[in-house]
Amino acid sequence: MKKGIVAWESPSNIALIKYWGKMGRQYPCNPSVSMTLKNAVSRTQLSFSERKEKWINFEFEGKENLDFAKRIETLFEGLNEELLLLSQYSYSITSENTFPHSTGIASSASAMSALALCICSMEELITGKKLERDEFLQKASFLARLGSGSASRSIYESYATWGKSSAFSKASDDYATPFSKYIHPIFKDYQDYILLVSSKKKKVSSTAGHGLMKNHPFAQARYDQANSNFERMLGILRSGDLDDFIEVIENEALSLHGLMMNSTPSFTLMKPNTLEAIELIREFRNETKIPVGFTLDAGPNIHLMFPKKDSVKVDAFVNKQLKELLEDGRYLKDETGFGPKQINISGGE
């Protein structure tokens, strides 16, 4: 096949148990589990043609992005063993997000998972061999992991794990594993409001953050904690115990930031308004008994998580008490999602 085009839409995810620290070929130092989002997605189109000298062109939302093009080139070159055909073509890749930059949503997870799915569809087009769905998704998760660890989990709907654990025999370091069929009904449409405290670029990249764990004095204690919280979270997702759910996600969020604050060099990524919002969330929970909890990624923005049935009361709380702490009063509403979907423009000749 001389040329063709494929496209996928893939979501971001929010980690409930954080992956922080990696080794070898993008392997995690501890297992993680995440909730796939519904509204925060990347839409990626990959066109391939006969190999030219400039073999990768990448545009994000209509503008050429040389840094990400270089990242894709590195990924493709590293995949020669698994997919020799990648080096035989040139690529024009375009991508766009449904969410703004620097908002506490993992754009690399959605972008790299969408790209991995495009690669798998391209391979099917070129070879004429169609994989079974489970095999296709597992391969896409494997490829996505090599681009961004958390991207491996975005391949699956609802909830997914990544990283070996004695608590879940199906879990693997090589790819994520779906967990959706085990979850309690309360978690099937769980809400995630992303509170935008600051949209400024983070002081430390995720890659650099993972690197801080290599000589961290509390690294082993963190991995032990993560393994324990991972096992506990799998039980919570099955049982629907919201008090325990809140306790674990908040413990994970604050542990992640604590690790960065006492690493060398040290980073403080929470802002004063992050801390004030956390206090108000806890006060609201104690006063109303509404099971609303928070988590954070490696930045200042808050993911406010709660059952869908409490949306009206939480909306009122956010608008009345939290909005003034947010940049331009902005927050994004999301919830448990249904995973990636192919965009039907694929073809080749």
Walkthrough of the structure:
The chain contains eight helices and 15 strands. It has 349 residues and is of the alpha+beta class. The chain folds into two domains: 4-182 and 339-348, Ribosomal Protein S5, domain 2 (2-Layer Sandwich), CATH 3.30.230.10; 185-335, GHMP kinase, C-terminal domain (Alpha-Beta Plaits), CATH 3.30.70. The strands form three sheets. Strands 1, 4, 5, 6, 7, 8, 9, 14 and 15 form a nine-stranded mixed sheet that branches. A four-stranded antiparallel sheet has the order 11-12-10-13. A two-stranded antiparallel sheet has the order 2-3. The chain is globular. The termini are close together. The mean pLDDT is 94. InterPro entries: GHMP_kinase_C_sf (IPR036554), Mev_decarb (IPR005935), MVD-like_N (IPR053859), Mvd1_C (IPR041431), Ribosomal_Su5_D2-typ_SF (IPR020568), Ribsml_uS5_D2-typ_fold_subgr (IPR014721).
Quick structural summary:
The chain is 36% helix and 23% strand.
What structural keywords apply?
349 residues; globular; 2 domains; lipid biosynthesis; single chain; 36% helix; Ribosomal Protein S5, domain 2; Alpha-Beta Plaits; alpha+beta
Question: Helices, strands, pairings?
Answer:
Blueprint: E1 4-17, E2 22-23, E3 27-28, E4 32-50, E5 56-60, E6 63-64, H1 66-78, E7 89-97, H2 107-127, H3 133-147, E8 159-162, E9 177-178, E10 191-195, H4 206-211, H5 219-239, H6 242-261, H7 272-288, E11 293-296, E12 302-306, H8 311-322, E13 331-335, E14 341-342, E15 347-348
Parallel strand pairs: 5-7
Antiparallel strand pairs: 1-4, 1-14, 1-15, 2-3, 4-7, 4-8, 5-6, 8-9, 10-12, 10-13, 11-12
